[in-house]
């Protein structure tokens, strides 16, 4: 299993992986926080564990259990905040240290929350639904907009390709994590949002209200394209699922 990228790239050995996965229930979500070197896992019942490596061993730092199915968990790009989406419409934003900033029950008619994402600047949070809607709220929990991009078609994931944050190279061996560890690695590229649908279509947009999306028909109706990233070619982006689909912009 591989976690992290860039300056903080790590690869877990077999023993460490067994230590992490020595859990009773199936793990359905795994999210790595590069700036703070933490790993979040979520099991099928909705219990979230935040792991941290201390003195060569992985240990549980935080546990969150709302007794409800989690549909998505995502760290903010700077690693300071976490967004949790529950299938019943409950959403929560908290700090990397476990402090709850705000939560809300979204009253949705005949649809469910399927995924969440931070905006490229971490100033907004976006939610996708089973009926093709995007719900946009501020990072402070204020409702901003609700739009339909593909009526009745489920949004399965939303991922930004944008500037990244990495663990500062000089601080890799420190035991105290602060926000100063998050340092920007500039790409000089405009941010890009990939919105993928249950049909296998992927919309590439500059923002959630982009009226002219570039559309990729992947045919991956049975899979979730979970990751979009920049390549060394500044005019190319890639979307990764079971296969790689490239699209020049």
From TrEMBL:
UniProt entry keywords in alphabetical sequence: Cytoplasm, Repeat, WD repeat
Domain of life: Eukaryota
Chain ranges of the IFT121/TULP4 N-terminal domain: 18-224
Organism: Paralvinella palmiformis
Protein name, as recorded: IFT121/TULP4 N-terminal domain-containing protein
InterPro entries, per the entry: Beta-prop_IFT121_TULP_N, Ift122/121, WD40/YVTN_repeat-like_dom_sf, WD40_repeat_dom_sf
Cited Gene3D superfamilies: YVTN repeat-like/Quinoprotein amine dehydrogenase
Cellular compartments annotated: Cytoplasm
Alphabetized SUPFAM superfamilies for the sequence: WD40 repeat-like
Primary localization class, coarse: cytoplasm
One GO BP: intraciliary retrograde transport
GO CC annotations, alphabetized: cytoplasm; intraciliary transport particle A; non-motile cilium
């Amino acid at each position: 299993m591989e976690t992290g990228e860039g300056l903080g790239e790590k690869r877990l050995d077999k023993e460490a992986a067994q230590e992490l996965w020595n859990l009773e229930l199936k793990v359905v979500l795994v999210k790595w926080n590069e700036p703070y070197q933490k790993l979040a896992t979520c099991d099928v019942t909705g219990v979230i564990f935040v792991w941290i490596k201390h003195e060569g061993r992985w240990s549980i730092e935080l546990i969150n259990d709302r007794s409800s199915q989690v549909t998505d968990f995502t760290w903010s790009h700077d690693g300071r905040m976490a967004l949790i989406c529950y299938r019943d419409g409950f959403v929560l934003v908290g700090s990397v240290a476990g402090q709850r900033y705000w939560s809300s029950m979204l009253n949705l008619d005949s649809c469910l929350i399927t995924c969440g994402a931070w905006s490229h600047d971490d100033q907004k949070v976006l939610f996708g639904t089973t009926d093709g809607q995007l719900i946009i709220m501020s990072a402070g929990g204020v409702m901003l907009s609700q739009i339909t991009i593909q009526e009745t078609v489920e949004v399965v994931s939303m991922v930004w390709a944008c500037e990244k944050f990495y663990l500062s190279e000089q601080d890799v061996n420190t035991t105290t994590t602060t926000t100063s560890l998050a340092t920007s690695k500039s790409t000089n590229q405009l941010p890009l949002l990939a919105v993928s649908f249950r049909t296998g279509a992927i919309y590439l947009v500059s923002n959630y209200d982009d009226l002219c999306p570039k559309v990729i028909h992947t045919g991956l109706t049975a899979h979730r394209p979970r990751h979009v990233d920049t390549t060394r070619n500044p005019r190319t982006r890639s979307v990764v699922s079971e296969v790689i689909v490239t699209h020049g912009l």
